[in-house]
Amino acid sequence: MSVEKILVVAHKIFDDSNLPNGYNVTKVGNNRFALPGGWSDCDGDDNISHENPWYCELTAQYWAWKNLPEDMDVIGLVHYRRYFMSYKVDSRCFWDDVLSIEEARNILHNYKMIIPFKTAKRSGGSILYRNRIMNEHDKHWVIIYQIMREKYPDYLKSFEKVIFGKKQVWFNMFIASKKIFDLYSQWIFGVLKEYDTAIKSIGENRVPRVDGFLS
């Protein structure tokens, strides 16, 4: 029997009565709101719920990586107010257009991962410039770049294509198989752990939500 879940990350009460089958509310943040059922990023022994002020929705991703079954066919991460959509001619309301588990499964027959559309970067945001010396850049991105060069050289070419480019993907939303979900989680949390260590080593205070934005 296939196991398929899409985590709907929420830090506040919202109307979850219209969520499609397979969508599961996952609570994050210090205020564990009184919404019946669902999961929490502090469930289980292995979690980073305490990192939510910096990691945002990624604390739910970490929890799913460490605590959900490895043999899941489909797993995803969306937000309580952001979803992947499959616009239909006969849809009657917003919820009719939210991507169903079955639609996601069909897409994943041909693609490894479902992600948001690329968008254009704002000038000076989430970007490094090749013709500018590094100490004139945003220090957070410089640290990430150094980590990629030193710790993950196999990914450097792909990373440079993104960080020097003009397009980006926002929101930490994606749907994939659990195998790919786990591989991606292992990589991204490895990078962010290195970043956190680097920030501490130079005596800088951690900035709220920065890990979530950098990811």
How does this structure look, described?
The structure is a single chain. The chain has 215 residues and is an alpha/beta fold. 33% of the residues lie in helices and 13% in strands. The chain is built from 7 helices and 8 strands, in the order E-E-E-H-H-E-H-E-E-H-H-E-E-H-H. The strands form 2 sheets. The chain has a 6-stranded mixed β-sheet with strand order 3-2-1-4-8-5, sandwiched between helices. A two-stranded antiparallel sheet has the order 6-7. Helix 2 crosses helix 6 (178-201) and helix 4 (139-151) crosses helix 6. The model has no long low-confidence stretch (mean pLDDT 93).
Topology, element by element:
Layout: E1 4-10, E2 23-27, E3 39-40, H1 52-55, H2 58-67, E4 74-79, H3 101-107, E5 113-114, E6 119-120, H4 139-151, H5 156-163, E7 167-168, E8 174-176, H6 178-201, H7 210-214
Parallel strand pairs: 1-2, 1-4, 2-3
Antiparallel strand pairs: 4-8, 5-8, 6-7
Short account of what is shown:
By secondary structure, the chain is α/β, with parallel strands linked by helices.
- Number of E-state strands: 8
Taking Cα atoms only, what radius of gyration do you get, to the nearest Å? 18 Å
Helix content: 25-40%
Order of helices and strands: EEEHHEHEEHHEEHH
What's the overall geometry? Answer: globular
Low-confidence stretches: none
Major sheet description: 6 strands, mixed
Strand order of the largest sheet: 3-2-1-4-8-5
Number of helices: 7
Q: Averaged pLDDT, please?
A: 93
Question: How far apart lie the N and C ends?
Answer: 33 Å
Sheet/helix structural class = alpha/beta
**Range of strand content:** 5-15%
